[in-house]
UniProtKB/TrEMBL annotation:
It comes from Sphingomicrobium lutaoense. InterPro entries: HIT-like, HIT-like_sf. Keywords: Hydrolase. Residues 2-104 form the HIT domain. A motif (Histidine triad motif) lies at residues 89-93. Gene3D superfamilies: HIT-like. GO terms for molecular function: hydrolase activity. Signal peptide: none annotated. This is Diadenosine tetraphosphate (Ap4A) HIT family hydrolase. The keyword Hydrolase applies. It comes from the Bacteria.
Length: 143
């Protein structure tokens, strides 16, 4: 199922991997390099509404996410933010955190909020070609 929250985050162009109950998407506006959205494929608008199977599947997904970020970003921490203020369906923003900046495709991705909360207002809006390169790199490691 594709809900409006998944569509808002650029599906299908931003899809990294589809799971049984979740979509892992590259966040169109990169708060830090490798920022993603983990979105439930259901109509749930509150966390308790997702199925026990969806909760269980998160373990596999978080393992994939953290392995990808360790390999491509080398974050010092990873923040999982469940804000759901504008986009109604259950989803988390996955924000890798690091001191300084990381580089990819000739762009600098600085963590403007380090060491405090992530500064969502200073996200980098990338060209689609750069986003596609990040997605391709992540997908290659998920095979």
């Amino acid at each position: 199922m594709i809900n409006e929250t998944i569509e808002k985050f650029g599906y299908p162009d931003t899809l990294i991997r589809e799971y049984r109950h979740w979509m892992l998407l590259l966040r169109p506006a990169q708060v830090t390099l490798g920022s993603m959205v983990l979105a439930a494929k259901s109509d749930a608008t509150r966390l308790h509404q997702i199925s026990p199977e969806a909760f269980s599947e998160q373990h596999e997904i978080i393992s994939d996410v953290e392995r990808l970020l360790d390999a491509h970003v080398a974050p010092q921490k990873i923040n999982y933010l469940m804000l759901m203020m504008v986009d109604p369906h259950v989803h988390s923003h996955v924000i890798p955190r690091y001191e300084g900046s990381r580089q990819f495709a000739g762009l600098d991705f600085e963590d403007h909020g380090w060491p405090g909360p992530p500064d969502l207002g200073k996200a980098v809006k990338m060209e689609k070609t750069v986003a596609r390169q990040i997605i391709n790199a992540f997908q290659a490691d998920l095979c």
